[in-house]
Amino acid sequence: MINLMSRAILMSTPLLIGATAEVFAERAGVMIIAIEGIFLIGAWGGFVGAFTAGNTFIGFFLASVLGVIIAALYGVFTVKLKQHQIVAGTAINIFIAGIVTFFHRVLFGVPLLPLTIEPFKTMPIPLLSRIPIVGPILFSQSLLTYVAYIVAPLGFFILFKTSAGLLVRSTGENPESVDVAGINVERVRLIVILIAGFMGGIAGSFYSIVYLGMFTSGIIGGRGWIAFAICFLGNWNPLGAMVGALIFGIAEALAIYMQSSGGGILPNEVLIAMPYILTIVLTISRKRFNVPTKLGTPYIKEH
């Protein structure tokens, strides 16, 4: 049980980072539909940086840069050119899936065996990691996990307790009032999108640098969409996203455990699908959503 919960905390890490980024973006009125593509290019950039430079921090840096670039592209389409967010995001996801596979083959060819790197090691916190039960679960994790569980409460504080957070929420609820106050709505949304791209790139790099130590074209496997769903299920609140990410982390850790132990009477396909089935069930069972008023609506300034 200790190993299962420790893995659950680990697997919730990228989902929490991505969902927190999505919360901020959607509070500003923009759905990051391209989150799956941002996760994927983050995973690829993280692997390429770590493999070629022999340094995992270079991998994290490259992943964040590529995440920001794709987010900027999405921001230009949706905020500046006022294109449909779902259509633009879907197109970018398809584009990233192809371009990543292409450049990976350009750089590394088609090796007989998968290229690998040394996964980012866990960093037990002195003294705290020795606490029975709690220590191995909470305080013997990756550095990225510690960061994720600091980012969510910090994001809650910024979003609901600071003037910057009020500005972000106002941009998603009543952009006209923000404009009247002399603040550029498009600029606010673009900044939030770029921050979300930075966080999404880091979240994607978790799978190649921290978890697997390798890259494949299917490495993300829809987990960007799960982070997107956690934003909804957490009711656009970073603390709600933290609870949702932990639930999905438990589901994924349980699926991995059951696969490794033979799975009993359930086929592997059902075990793999468990987190996604949980997404559907929780979405259907949720009765109320506090949707930002202008979510998904481009702001067109009246003259």
Describe the structure.
- With 303 residues, the chain is mostly helical.
- The protein has one domain: ABC transporter involved in vitamin B12 uptake, BtuC, CATH 1.10.3470.
- Helix 2 crosses helix 10.
- The radius of gyration is 19 Å and the shape is globular.
Summarize the topology.
Layout: H1 2-27, H2 35-53, H3 56-80, H4 85-108, H5 134-138, H6 143-161, H7 163-173, H8 175-180, H9 185-211, H10 223-233, H11 238-260, H12 268-285
Helix pairs in contact: 1-6, 1-7, 1-9, 1-10, 1-11, 2-3, 2-4, 2-9, 2-10, 3-4, 3-9, 6-7, 6-11, 10-11, 10-12, 11-12
* Number of separate structural domains: 1
The helix tally amounts to: 12
Identify the CATH architecture: Orthogonal Bundle
Tell me the major beta sheet: none
**CATH C-level label:** Mainly Alpha
Total count of strands:
0
Question: How would you concisely characterize the structure shown here?
Answer:
Helix content is 71%, strand content 0%. The chain has 303 residues and is mainly α.
Which characteristics define this entry?
ABC transporter involved in vitamin B12 uptake, BtuC; 303 residues; mainly alpha
